[in-house]
Amino acid sequence: MKMLEMLGEFVAGMMSFLKKGEFNRVNEMIEAAFTDFLKQDAAYFNNLPIEKLTHHLLKEHNYSYGHLEVLAELFNTQAELYYRQGKNEESLVFYEKALVVLQFVVKESKTFSQEKENKVAQLQLKISDLRELEKK
User: Which end of the chain is more exposed for a tag (fewer CB within 10 A), N or C?
Assistant: First the structure.
């Protein structure tokens, strides 16, 4: 729980830099967050196929659902970074990864969380909007 609170503060800081257009700084912060929170570099997770983002990480790396929530939040932040840079295809990939991981956590979790349900809905909306942009 403490890890998620720390991540929340960290993400809020990254979002403030995103709003200022400090994309390089946000990218560096994301890279550091992967190492700090998940003990792997961002490239490891970025290169994992979407179908290996859940069970694979739980079994082979002994990650918890909390780790997966962190991963979903970092993917979401990466997606937002790419979106603000006008890189819609890359943004879509990371929003989709965030959604898959978060939906897995919601499904497997034994407790209901309105906050997680809201995040799932937000991700689904962002993905839908980006897919519509691609069609145009």
Answer: C
